[in-house]
Write a structure and sequence with these properties.
- This protein is α+β, with helices and mostly antiparallel strands and 67 residues long.
- The protein has a domain at 24-67: SH3 type barrels, CATH 2.30.30.
- Helices cover 30% and strands 43% of the residues.
- The protein has a 5-stranded antiparallel beta sheet with strand order 4-3-2-1-5, with no helix packed on it.
- Strand 1 (24-28) and strand 2 form a beta hairpin.
């Protein structure tokens, strides 16, 4: 029984870390930061899904970095 509890706890930690590590940050040229997930890149556009689930497109000319 103890092994099952330990295995479940370890599995939960791994899944939690995977969810956290999949988040991205857009750093805009004006210094603002946007949290979410990059869902696509086009020629001059980055498609980004915000933490609330809304997707927006950002011109690459406005984006300083993606981390």
């Amino acid at each position: 029984m103890r092994r099952i509890v330990i295995a479940a706890a370890v599995s939960l930690c791994v899944v939690s870390l995977a969810a956290i590590s999949s988040a991205d940050t857009l750093i805009m040229r004006d210094g603002t930061r946007v949290q979410g997930t990059v869902t696509g890149f086009a020629a001059r556009t980055i498609t980004f899904r915000h933490a609330d689930g809304v997707s927006r497109r950002y011109p690459t000319s406005q984006v300083e970095a993606v981390t």
